[in-house]
Amino acid sequence: MQNELFLQGRKEDFMNGNNKIRSGALYIRVSTDKQEELSPDAQKRLLVDYAKNNHIVVSEEHIYMENGISGRKAKKRPEFMRMISNAKNKEHPFDVILVWKYSRFARNQEESIVYKSLLRKQCDVDVISISEPLMDGPFGSLIERIIEWMDEYYSIRLAGEVRRGMMEKALRGGYQSKPPLGYKMENKIPVIMEEQANIVRKIFHDYLEGRDETSIARDLNDCGYKTSRGNAFDNRGVQYILENPFYIGKVRWNYVEKHGNRKSSSVYDVIIADGVHDAIISFEEFKRVQERRQKEYKPLRRRSTSTTKHWLTGVLKCGYCGSSLVYVSPKPRKGGSSSPFFQCHAYSSGKHSGSCAIIEKKVIPVILSSLKEFIQSELPYFAIKTSSKDSNASKIKHLENEYKKLEIRAHRAKMAYLDGIDTKEEYLENKRWNARMKQELEEKIKELSMPKIEFKQATNTMKKRVEEVYEVISSDVDNEKKGSSLRSVVAAIVFHRDTEIFEFEYFLSV
What is the pTM of this model? Predict the structure, then answer.
């Protein structure tokens, strides 16, 4: 209140003078890196003094302060965005924004130019750095751009130094973060926690026994086990443990190396080095797990066998539309019984007219007969569907993440419009751009997901694997083991109802 009264007094002192009085806002930011910069209180004191000496009236409601926040991205600075929103208000609450240095306003030159232009052209608001005075005219604008470029260069260089430091630490077997389940840090070295280590051993053992990640996660939760963060297990958490070389005494660090300009794609790479911690899992056991994971056919979004009613679910496909055939076990009728059967779920929901139903007792003998014929043949040629979706999994995942970002961006643009930050024209332009980008991503994902068919000759190794699968599915093992075994060699079994033909699509490593 004292500050407001003093400023009000200054305003009254100049009401009858020739000096122009302006209303102002203060933007104060201290970033996260260990650079030498003034504290928020020191910045505020200097900015208030500048305002007093330059006939600028600042009210407390227009002092925007952020502590420990990077200046690279404006969207991640809530006070900055609130200030921009207020500046666009029709009431024009302030004429000028005061900052200690231009680097406090933004460290991204592109965003700095965008927001300064918006403030000047649409809001008639200037941005002034009290420690970097600029002359009027083109030369002053040039100096301002040079300052912005140097600020961004410093920020990029600082990020690069941090990344290189982390890389060097990883190459020496250093630890970048909290150790995974089964370990705790003592004197900066991970040591084994036996109680948690037994959970890890159980996960590896169960997986090598033929169980899938979902089934293992469900069993761990039934036993009351928790993750290192105290949460329930899920299939992704189990998958992370099975693929983590930390458990054989290695240190893995995923890093991003950017090439070219800021708009180029990021290149992801992995550093694996020897750690100084003890292993929980033997190298041989870890290797066997990775071998099983590599040879199994796992399309994206396919349900795990432990969640299906029948081991053919997800493998048996409709010859009309390619959808999965759902296992149906009807209730017994009066005076008789109804046999379980498979039916296309798309047909059941009315998406096409051709029924693709087939009873279970007819399907299984055909599958066993086809696999046996394959085993007994003299290395025939056959068609193998190479799943582009799996071979391009990393690219598709990257595109899907970009698609999710667009959805988030669309939501933020809508909220910015509803909150009065953006005009209707800005919102509509963002909406059109977003729709165009989403369509391009959808087309790229579809192109990368298209399957490829090629003809190859069977090998003795293939025949051996098919024989192993035949022995499993013809035995009395449970649904989960049969399904996992079949999926290791068969991508899909397409049933053509009109011709009563089963088309086998194999997935075999060659």
Answer: 0.42
